[in-house]
Structure formats: structure tokens, C-alpha cells
Amino acid sequence: MTEDIPDQTFLHVDINSYFATLAQQETPALRGKPVGIIKDVGRTCIIAASKEAKKFGIKTGERLKDARQKCPDIITVPAQFDMYLSATKDLKQLFTSLAPDVEVFSLDESFINFTPLRKLYPSPQEFGLEVQTQIKKTLGEWVTCNVGISYNRFLAKMTGETSPKGSVTEVTPRNRDALLARVSFADVCGIGMRLERKLRLLNVTTPFQINFIERETLLSLFGPFWTEELQKMARGDEPLFLTRIDRNPHMKSVSRSITLFSLSKEHDHIKRVLYNLATEVMHKVRRMDLAGRVIGVYLRGDGPNSWGTYVTLRRHINHLSEYFDILWNQLVSQWKEQFPVIKFVVYLGLLEPLQQVPQPILPDYWKQERVARAVDSLSKKYGLFTVRSGLFLNQEIIKPEVTGYLGDKLYQFME
Amino acid sequence: MYQRIHETISVIGVYKEAAFVPKKFLWNSRVYRVDEITFVTNVRDGGVQKRMYSLISKGNAYRVVFNRDEETWKLEEVWCD
After folding, report:
1. Has this prediction a pTM greater than 0.95?
2. ipTM of predicted assembly, 2 dp
3. What CA–CA distance (Å, rounded) separates A282 from A274?
């Protein structure tokens, strides 16, 4: 790489306050007002805040009660997950019409490789401005985004996320260290709360400060993996998780979680919720022609109450009946000190493509497979839960929804 | 907050750049002129495809859904302050 022309140039596009901005775009009465997105009517956690609400210090994950103390006029709006996913698909279509190498990183963030476009645009900044214009044309005038530009995705993302709303900023080797010395570790993607706290105890608050610590000290405190990762970040190099994005040919695991409105202590209700979540997990796994062999469950109550376990099977499974049988009869039956549950998580891991795992020859398996295929074809045509267990008779069904991280993007972007 | 209506309506519009653009809708024997389309959401559940148009008529916000399989229109929700 030379000083002036880097080997590669990436753009990081981050839609500002995605959920709240889309709500304001859709409903003009909300524009310019402090808006807090909640998961549903009656929920008490702000899952996204508009830029106007953020000015009052309202943050994602804040309790509605606390948010109302900071801003009594905050307007709460239930989330529209279908809308967010639809908008992300529109953005993906837009970006792939502008550039050949695009990676959707999360629901509201994408990377665009500008390198193949160098002859088409005078500069990456001009292209960044064009992206901003096209986003407004696609999603609406109210929708703004930050564009970060750099010679790798780590720095492009860092500058995009820490610059003023609606800006286009570039990091080069010349101004890289200034950025690394300015940005707090709390704002660095890939650094969790615990690691950030541990670093703060060492008086390390920015990536650049890592350069002042001896490697041996880092090794003794953080181990070989994080020493390597932190030193990469201190130099402005891409950490491992960014070099791996979109390199997986298939999903490694599928999970689903839900936090209920209130604690559930009724045995049948707990079973129904777990079956509901397991149905969605297995639907996705089968839709992607995968099978898994790690089955896990996690339950959380109020206060410190939590319990979870998993089992690794010798063979891969891809039938809901077998999956739930193991989940309920082998795993949940181990849950001895039961408590009322508010959060439920189920997952199926160690996924492999169905063609790459040995298939049983037992007639029972193929009987189950014929039933599963019939259900699959009905779900494909009429939607998930068209065919459902008698457990759901006259009961409300928990429908699928997307998360901000879009961990199941390989599934969501399937044709 | 949007209030649920879920009533069948009639819609007329034009095709512009290969996409349908609603211009007016008839609800409860009253014609509502579409002043602005603020958002279009495509929803797919299995093979069932729906398109939700978020519309503004005389300053009021409406959510109108077109079921692409049944070719039916519904006024799903109305914004109430």
C-alpha cells in the first residue's frame, strides 16, 4: 500500500437511528420529535431512540420509566420488524446495483468495497454522497446515514460510527492514529462490556493506548487471542471478526429467544413457548437444508435466577419432533430448582449441510421426514405455523422477528 | 399510535416505473386522495406476499395493505395522535 493510494477502499454505511428514523419516515407526525421504539404495546424497554430522543440522553436498552424522567414528552412506538427487514432488503438491492462487492453487516449497516469503482467516481467521498442521495430516494427524505471511508472495514466503521449524523468522513494512514486515540473502546465494535471494563481498570480507554503496553503484560492479562486482536486494533488493522464476515457458506447455529411481558410459572405455558421457539428454529434449519447436533436451552427468571444446559448428539438431526423431544424430555427435565421464567432461549448448533451428514436408513426416520416435508411445503406456500401443534389451540403464537444484528441474514436473504 | 381498522377498501392508482402507485382509496363510501406515500413495506410469509403502503391523506397517516396473491386491499391501520 502506498501512502496516497491504498490497496483497497471500503465504505461503511450506517443508517442513523434506524428503527426510529424509519418510524419517522413512515409517519410524518413523529418527525422532529423524541421517539422511543418499544418491542410491543405495553413493553417497558426502549430498543431504539430517535436522534431527538438521544439528545435527552436516552439510550438503547433504557427502561421506559427512566426515559420518561429524562424526557416526559417521549413518544413510544411499537417496533415494525417487517418494515425494518423490508427496508434492509431494499438497501441491499440498492447497494448491489451500485457496486459489485457488498456485505450487509447488520440490519442498518453495510460495507461497500469501493476498489472496483475507482474509475467510475472521482473519489470515494463523491461516491459516499451519491450513496446518501440514493438512500433518500429509496427509503425517503427523512432517512440519513453516516458514511465512513478507509482502507479497511475496521477504520471505515469506526469513523462512520463516531462522526456527526449524516456525515461522510475518511480515515487515511495520516489521520488514523488521531482517530484511534480519540475513539473510546466502548464505541469499538467487537469489544464487549466486560473487556472494556477490564481495559478501563488499566486506564486504557482508547485503542491507541494499547501501543504503550508491553506484549507480555497483555498476554498475562488477556491471553493470546485478545492480545493479538487488541494489538491489531491499536494499529488500525482489521480484527478477526471483520475479516470473517460473510465468509461462512452456511449458518453455524440457529437460535431464537423471547422475553415475555411477565413471569411464567405455568408448566404448560413454558412448554408451549419452548415448542413455539423450537418450531421457528427447525423451520429455518430445514429451509436452509441443514441439520445440527448441539441442542441447547436457557431460561431466565427475575433477579439472579437462570438455568441452561445443552447436549451434543452423535448424529445430526433435522426433525422438529426429535428436536423438541430431546429439548423437553432430556434437557428441561434436568431443571430441578424451577423458578418463574421471563426469558426463553433455544438453539440448534454445529449445523452442517444435509448432503454432508450421513442420513439414517431407519424407516421411522423416513416416516418423520415425509411428514416434515409435507409441513415444509405447506409452510412455504402459506407461511410458518399454518400447520401447527395442538399445543397452540386457541393460544397466541410468537411470530418470527428479525434482530438488529441480523444474525440470520443467510436465511433472511434466501430467495 | 396506529389504531387497527382491518377493513376492505378499493384503491385506484397508476403504474409508474413498473410499480403501482396508489392515488385514491374508497373507505366507508368516502374517497381519500393520497397526497404522499411515505413508505412501502414488502412482507412475505411463506408464499403469501403482501405490500403495505404507508400513505398520507389530508395530513392523516394510513397503512393500506395489498395482498398480492388474493389481489385484495385492506385499510389496516390509521394513525391517531
Report:
1. no
2. 0.95
3. 12
Residue-level pLDDT at A3: 53
* Residue A342, number of CB atoms within 10 A of its CB: 17
CA angle A254, A257, A259 (to 5 degrees): 175
Cell 390509521 locates to B78
| Residue A387: closest C-alpha in chain B | B46
Q: Residue B79 and residue A83: Cβ atoms within 8 Å?
A: no
Question: Residue A7 class from Cβ within 10 Å (0-12 exposed, 13-18 middle, 19+ buried)?
Answer: exposed
A380 interfacial to chain B (CB closer than 8 Å): yes
Q: Tell whether A82 is within 8 A of chain B (Cβ).
A: yes
How high is the pLDDT of residue A244? 63
Q: Is the pLDDT score of B17 beyond 90?
A: no
**Cell (9 digits) for B42:** 414488502
Comparing CB atoms, the residue among A25, A379, A382 nearest residue B39 is A25
A291 contacts A317 by C-beta, under 8 angstroms = yes
Q: How large is the average pLDDT for residues B50-72? A: 94
Interface touch A382/B48, C-beta < 8 Å: yes
Contacts of B37 in chain A (CB under 8 A): none
**What digits encode the pLDDT tens for the residues A226-262?**
999 999 999 999 988 777 665 678 899 999 999 998 8
Q: Flag whether residue A387 sits within 8 Å of chain B, measured between CB atoms.
A: no
Nearest by CB: B81 against A29, A77, A382: A29
CA A102/CA A259 separation, integer angstroms: 33
* Mutation target vs A (from B41, B55, B77; most A CBs, 10 A cutoff): B41
Q: CB contact, 8 Å: A270 with chain B?
A: no
Digit-coded pLDDT (tens) for A153-177: 999 999 999 999 999 999 999 999 9
Cβ(A348)–Cβ(A287) below 8 Å = no
What local confidence, expressed as pLDDT, does residue A170 receive?
A: 96
Using DSSP's 3-state secondary structure scheme, residue A369 falls into helix
What percentage of chain B's residues is helix, strand, coil (to nearest 5)? 0, 80, 20
Residue A272 contacts residue A335 (beta carbons within 8 Å): no
Please check whether residue A375 is in contact with residue A387, taking contact to mean a CB–CB distance below 8 angstroms: yes
| Residue B53 reports pLDDT greater than 80 | yes
Listed as ranges, residues in chain A with pLDDT below 70 are 1-4, 244-247, 415
Q: Which residue of B has its CA nearest to A375?
A: B46
Contact status, residue A35 vs residue A23, Cβ threshold 8 Å = yes
Beta strand ranges found along A54-195 (DSSP E): 75-78, 102-106, 109-113, 145-150, 168-170
Q: Which residues of A touch B47 (CB under 8 A)?
A: 380-383
Output the pLDDT for position A2.
47
pLDDT value at residue A223:
93
Q: Is A190 left (phi over 0), alpha (psi -120 to 50) or beta?
A: left
